[in-house]
Amino acid sequence: MSVRTQPRNPLASNLQLFSEEGPKPSARTAQVLRRYALEDLAKRDLSATITRLSQVYESDPNRELQYSIAELAYIAGKRAEDRDRSEAMSYFSTSLLYAYDYLFDQQQAETLNPYDPQFRGVCDLYNQSLESTLRLVQADGNLRPGMQGTVQTVGHRCTFDIVLYSSGWHAEDFDNFKFVSDYQIAGLRNHYHTYGLGVPIIAERRSHQGETGAEKFYPDKLTFPLTAFLKINRRPNEVGLRNSADDASTPQFVLELHDPLDRQMLTVGETRVPLESDLTTPLAYFLNQPDFEIEKVSTTGLFTPGEVERLQGLYMLEPFDPNKMPVVMVHGLWSSPVTWMEMFNDLRSDPFVREHYQFWFYLYPTGQPFWISASQMRRDLKAMRRVVDPTATQVALDQTVLVGHSMGGLVSKLQSIDSGNQFWATMSDRPFGELRADPELKRELEQAFYFQPNPSVRRVVTIGTPHRGSKLANDVTQWVGNNLIRMPMKLVTRRQALLTNNPGYFRPDAPLQIRTSIDSLDPDSVLLHKLRSAEPGPWVRFHNIAGRQTSSGLRQWFSKDGDGVVSLESARLDGLPNVASQLVVEADHLGVHRHPQSVLEVRRILMEQLVELKRFPLPETDVQMASAQLTEGESHSHATQQSPPITPSLKQRY
Fold first, then answer.
1. In terms of CB atoms within 10 Å, which of 90, 99, 344, 368 comes out highest?
2. How many CB atoms lie within 10 A of CB 546?
């Protein structure tokens, strides 16, 4: 992400905003000036020209004049903003008022032509005049919901209230804002920007006293999208600017801040208006902050996992909504939640997905064995539920979808199965109760090896997951891992104490000797074998995506027939009775979860859940699209060499 030398401005070309000659009227406005013999005056005195056109408009109101006055006022504001901010404010406000009247004057509603290029031009004039006005107001003091601002128009000094419209964010969350137009994105492939009215902004959240519930899961310095829209209320039949001292003629302004995740449309009078919005730039800004060192967490979490414990847990990047189903994304080895931002950016842009799902991210230290991380995730999911739903009445939370990449797929899968006694049997042939250890350690071991499927998890999506281990965990990498990965000293000493206090208790091949995540992914790992045959909750459905790369490279040393790290054989999800789909995409291990086919497959899975829950009446076109994607997913089920069965109810609904 980078700061633009000049803010993005759709008027720049048409009005020659950044040319050496300075801003100039468009060809259409030049024609209006010629029509009223004002060309020469416009070159000498733009202010007098605007006054003359306003007088003409009072006696002969028409859209061409409205547009020309708005455009000339905007040009005058751009010329004045560096030398006289008060004068610039007056011009920008004038442009804003005439553009607003052009769009919403009910007396001329029958002449509004949305097919005229001028219509989009006046939308741009409204947006850019509002943005320029807000920049000047912001320079005089912070703008926050609940406060009042002031703008100077021709003949009036107007105050305006600032009102936040959001189901999840509150006025105390709002710290400051920046303009989307100031930034250029380079790190995310897709940029989701919708067109309409309003100014997309990046709202910066601040932590505050009294945070409760889900607010505890918001990361520091989180940013979120908002759209600023200035609503202008007038007396009936009052249009344009009137240089009257009568306070009753003063237009009433309200600056509305809308959350585009809540709404994409608003109503002005009798007109439905699409909001201009940008979902991607605020996300990129958050990820790009200098003190947001999440990329360092990837390396720290692998080589010194103890240092990441304070950061471990669930994170929410959008307001918690008890009516939306959670999609929890779990990263893999030597990674962090940042790895999901491509998929998150794509999925959240879909209004159908956005309406029914909320996205959370799980961060854990990847240097430790995956079953320890899985145990900690079970603990954190339970703690989250107690915090956000203490009465256990929010049914949407019982339709949770877990999406795990690489080792994160194993961590996710362990949330959905019943351990029975088979996991502990890999450690010892003797009863767990005979183990001699301090109470805290014994409780942690019990949680790691004895567990039941999470009743709230309905689907598990594994992507590029080494279900049968990976040759990445060979003798060389295990030696490197054991010498470079520094487990917390507490764990090392406790492991030794277990062996000392329980002579002859543990099996010779007990996974107690496995110290790191790399060791735990050894294809010969007995725990991986048990995980493949463990009984899942009967309510859980599994979906699997595997990668296959054709190019050669260093990673091919680990896997010649898969994604370069995980072989296709290991990536297959077999042996479970409720595997709903498997798909192979042409991608390497680092890109399989970012691949467009993988994103579409996860979207299809989410849509499938909505259909089965009968919560989502799909339009006919979307039924066809989902059906086509489902068919393609079946035809690409190379991992099992056969199409997994589709439930009759789903077939019938499609």
1. 99
2. 28
Query: Could you give the CA distance from residue 627 to residue 604 in angstroms, rounded to a whole number?
Result: 9
Number of Cβ within 10 Å of residue 380's Cβ equals 17
Contacts of 35 (CB under 8 A, 6+ apart): none
Q: What whole-number distance in Å separates Cα of residue 358 and Cα of residue 329? A: 11
- Is the dihedral angle over the CA atoms 620, 626, 629, 635 positive or is it negative? negative
- Backbone φ, ψ for residue 231 (5° rounding): -95, 135
Mutual angle of helices 85-104 and 63-80, in 10-degree steps? 160
Q: Does domain 293-653 have CATH number 3.100.10.20?
A: no
Distances (CA, A) of 226 to 133, 177, 437, 516: 17, 9, 54, 43
- Closest residue by Cα to residue 200 from 95, 271, 137, 285: 285
Cβ atoms within 10 Å, residue 293: 11
For 212-233, how does the pLDDT look when each residue is reduced to its tens digit (9 = 90+)?
889 999 988 899 999 999 998 8
Task: Give the count of alpha carbons within 13 A of 80, CB side only.
Answer: 22
Q: Which tokens go with 480?
A: 């490197």
Q: What is the mean pLDDT of the chain?
A: 84
DSSP labels, 279-315: SHHHHHHHHT-TT--HHHHHHHHHH-GGGGGGG-EEE
Q: Residue 388's Cα: distance from chain center in Å?
A: 20
What is the reported pLDDT for 643? 34
Q: How confident is the model at residue 559 (pLDDT cuts 50, 70, 90)?
A: low
Name residue 119's amino acid.
F
- Half-sphere exposure of residue 401: CA atoms within 13 angstroms, side-chain side: 24
CB distance 13 to 197 below 8 Å: no
CA distance 528 to 135: 58
> Higher-confidence residue: 458 or 474?
458
Give pTM, 2 decimals.
Answer: 0.86
pLDDT for 69 equals 97
| Domain-wise residue ranges, the chain | 2-281, 293-653
